[in-house]
Every structure is written in C-alpha cells, then in structure tokens.
C-alpha cells in the first residue's frame, strides 16, 4: 500500500509548508496533499537546509511564524531556490502589505481562512506560472503599472463590464473565450481541460492575444479583462 502511494506521487511537485501552527497545518496540509508531495517545516533554518537539496515547486510561508523575518526569507528563497514559487499566509493583509509582498516576488497573499476550493484554485494558478491578486489590490497594481509605463494603455472598460471594445475586435472568438477565463483566474491546464484543447494550444492563443492587445503577460491580461 505504501509503495503504491509513493508511485502515485513521483511526478507530482514538492510543496513545502513553513509553519509551527497546528491550526494552519491542519487546515492546509491535506489540501496541499492533493497537489503534490508535502513537507511541513517548522523553522526557517530547516527550510534553508531543505532548499540546499531539492527545490520545491511551491513554498507556503506562514507569516505568523514568530521566528520568520519575511523580507530575509524571501531574499534567501530567491538566492537558494529561484525557481520555487512562494505563497504567503496570514489572517488578513492590508493592500499596502500585499503590494509590497507582490513587489518582493511572492506569487500570492492568502488569508488563512480561505475555503478549500479557493486554495486549490490558487495553487493551480501559481504552479501554472500565474499570480494570485486580491480584488482590492488589482486596481492599485494596475495604477502602479500604468505610472511606471509597464502597461501599454489604460483599460478601456469599466469594472465588471463585458469584454468588448475596439482592441478586442481583432481577437478571434476562441481568443476572447480564453481571455475571459484568464480574467477569472483559471490556469492554462484548466482552460485546456474545459475547452478540450492542449496546454500548448492555450499558450499559442495567449501569445497571439498578448501581441494583439499590446500586453506582456497574463497578469496584465487579467487586469485588462476585468477592467481593474
């Protein structure tokens, strides 16, 4: 039975949960197990040792850990395991704190009170190369991007408006469908499954969408589609 369990996990990514909270571990461990091989670590020093060996696909940091210096931890993770994605957990995040953490390179800031389905959605998005951003932070992030000149043009549609406008006319029906799914936070793999196409086809469509809309990545596309 044990052997069968190990074989089933061989091709799944390693996920690390850094926390010493029994409540956090109980809440997140089984959910993370659905997406990979989970290692629970209770101290930053143990995490550095882990990163000196195998690089995990995802690291979940509990910011409530008293021994954790978040800024130093993110710097060390970038140094020791630059390919690893990072999610941070906390009861609540202010918009300024979330913006700062996103700017430091985390792939998402998650409330420790999220539902199972939302956690799964976030993990899917992050492992697929996406970034999880709260609705409160999206407009602020868009404003920063526009001020820095990293977004080619302001969003031409109001919040929650249907995806229309002159810049979308050149998209094919399939491209518009994929753009809407990206705006809903759906990962490439889930898009491929829902539309019965391959991951490679989804990526090809995204490349065409980025070029037609003058955008550079899926984050900008999500902000464009949602009008935030």
Description:
This protein has 228 residues and is α/β, with parallel strands linked by helices. The chain folds into 2 domains: 2-127, Response regulator (Rossmann fold); 138-226, Winged helix-like DNA-binding domain superfamily/Winged helix DNA-binding domain (Arc Repressor Mutant, subunit A, Orthogonal Bundle), CATH 1.10.10. Helices cover 50% and strands 11% of the residues. The protein is built from 11 helices and 5 strands, in the order αβαβαβαβαβαααααα. The chain has helices spanning 2-9, 22-33, 44-51, 70-80, 95-103, 116-127, 138-148, 173-183, 188-195, 199-213, 218-226; strands at residues 14-18, 37-41, 58-62, 85-90, 108-111. The chain has a 5-stranded parallel β-sheet with strand order 2-1-3-4-5, with helices on both faces. α4 links the parallel β3 (58-62) and β4. α8 (173-183) packs across α10, α8 (173-183) crosses α11 (218-226) and α9 (188-195) packs across α10. The longest helix is centred in the last third of the chain and has 15 residues, at 199-213. The chain is globular. It starts with a helix and ends with a helix. 29% of the residues are buried. Residues 1-9 and 150-165 have low confidence and may be disordered.
């Amino acid at each position: 039975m044990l052997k069968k369990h190990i074989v089933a996990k061989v091709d799944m990514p390693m996920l690390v949960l850094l926390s010493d909270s029994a409540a956090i571990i109980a809440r997140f461990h089984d959910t993370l197990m659905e997406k990979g091989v989970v290692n629970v670590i209770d101290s930053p020093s143990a995490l550095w040792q882990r990163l000196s060996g195998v690089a995990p696909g995802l690291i979940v940091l509990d910011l409530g850990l008293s021994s954790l210096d978040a800024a130093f931890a993110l710097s060390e993770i970038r140094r020791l395991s630059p390919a690893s994605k990072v999610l941070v957990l906390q009861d609540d995040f202010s918009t300024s704190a979330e913006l700062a953490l996103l700017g430091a390179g985390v792939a998402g800031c998650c409330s420790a009170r999220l539902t199972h389905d939302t956690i799964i959605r976030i993990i899917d998005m992050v492992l697929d190369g996406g970034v999880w951003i709260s609705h409160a932070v999206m407009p602020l992030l868009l404003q920063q991007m526009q001020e820095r000149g990293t977004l080619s043009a302001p969003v031409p549609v109001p919040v929650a408006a249907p995806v229309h406008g002159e810049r979308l006319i050149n998209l094919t029906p399939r491209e518009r469908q994929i753009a809407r799914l990206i705006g809903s936070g759906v990962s490439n793999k889930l898009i491929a499954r829902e539309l019965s196409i391959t991951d490679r086809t989804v990526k090809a469509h995204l490349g065409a969408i980025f070029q037609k809309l003058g955008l550079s990545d899926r984050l900008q596309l999500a902000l464009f589609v949602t009008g935030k």
